[in-house]
Write a structure and sequence with these properties.
- By secondary structure, the chain is of the alpha+beta class.
- The protein is 21% helix and 30% strand.
- The protein has a 12-stranded antiparallel sheet.
- The N and C termini lie far apart (51 Å).
């Protein structure tokens, strides 16, 4: 592992970030250190979410590409302990196959006991993440429909005809306290569109508790090259990017600012609506493709918030949909401020 990979900085390619050691036919271990959001001490959830799907992809037949992933985040991910992925083969069909994955992080074993002490078997490492992944083969379809959305026209007041690279790199943590931190997000380059002009126009008088019209756009493209012969790795780049700063959209939409005490993903689902070719992160000449995540929140309550998004390619094809449920708990002062705003 190179120094840059060990530090988890932006020079790490997505291919390097997702690399796995194969332990046996159904067990894999991560190699690269995951990203720590906001320079914190916990791993970015998108890493284990995407890598679990990629581990499962190592056990399916040729032509099967991930199309549906649902993951449950059980414990925070550690930064300095590899993820271990146990893949369970649920079903292998002609068009679809299904895998489940349980993920653990086993700390280093303790030193051997002295001859005078009795040894106890080590307790199994707790499961920190679990997911259910469906793969399918490409197939011709006589029908296809999607919502009639033109991002450039719908969000023209915010996009202003700019290219993706004209927008700033997404912040380390998309909150008032974290947006100025230096960012070293690896694997995928993400550009955040300043949507303040659009959001003010859409909901100038809405109370913070009713911000279903709030929107956020993020452009993303992969860092480094991915072999066209590995479509599942291309698909996993979308999974990885889809989790970037997602819960912060809820606190921004509700105008909570830094008033949250705890915030974490609980579950995350991504469904792809297109075949393998449409998920590739580069064209046939290996030119990087930009994709756009259009995100919003429709519901919050019970200490949680819902993040929803559509993933679009540069031609306006709706390639995927995401649905993420997360814990959002306020500080005491945040509760008082929210009450005053309402």
């Amino acid at each position: 592992m190179s120094a840059s990979e060990d530090e988890g900085d932006a020079r790490v390619s997505f291919t390097g970030l997702m690399a796995l050691d194969r332990i046996d036919s159904n067990t894999f271990r991560s190699i690269a250190r995951p990203y720590a959001p906001g320079n914190g001490n916990r791993a970015f959830g998108g890493h284990v979410y995407a890598q679990a799907a990629y581990a499962a992809a190592q056990t399916v037949g040729e032509g099967f590409v991930v199309h549906n992933v649902t993951g449950l985040f059980i414990l925070p991910g550690l930064l300095d302990v590899p993820f271990q992925y146990a893949v369970h083969r649920i079903r292998d069909g002609g068009s679809y196959c299904t895998r489940s994955v349980t993920v653990t992080q086993a700390p280093p074993p303790p030193p051997p006991p002295s001859s005078s002490s009795s040894s106890q078997p080590a307790a199994p490492a707790p499961i920190c993440f679990t997911s259910l992944i469906s793969f399918k083969r490409d197939e011709p379809s006589p029908y296809s429909h999607q919502a009639d959305v033109n991002l450039a026209r719908k969000y023209s007041i915010a996009l202003r005809g700019k290219a993706p690279t004209d927008h700033p790199i997404a912040p380390a943590a998309d909150s008032p306290a974290g947006e100025h931190l230096p960012d070293t997000f690896p694997g995928v380059e993400i550009r955040k569109v300043d949507m303040s002009s659009y959001n003010r126009k859409q909901s100038p008088h809405d109370p913070p508790s009713n911000r279903a019209d709030y929107r956020q756009l993020q452009y993303y493209r992969v860092i480094g090259n991915i072999s066209r012969s590995d479509p599942n790795l291309h698909a996993c780049a979308h999974l990885y990017a889809s989790d970037r700063n997602s819960m912060f959209l809820i606190t921004r939409a509700l105008d909570i600012g830094d008033g949250f005490g705890r915030m974490a993903s609980l579950s995350h689902t991504v469904v792809f609506h297109v075949g393998a070719e449409s998920l590739l992160m580069a064209d046939e000449k290996d030119r990087k493709r930009w994709f756009c995540q259009e995100a919003w929140t429709e519901r919050s309550g019970d200490g949680r918030g819902l993040h929803t998004s559509r993933l679009w390619d540069e031609r306006g094809v709706h390639v995927g949909t995401t649905l993420q449920d997360g814990m959002v708990r306020l500080k005491r002062e945040g509760v008082r401020e929210m009450g005053a705003k309402l």
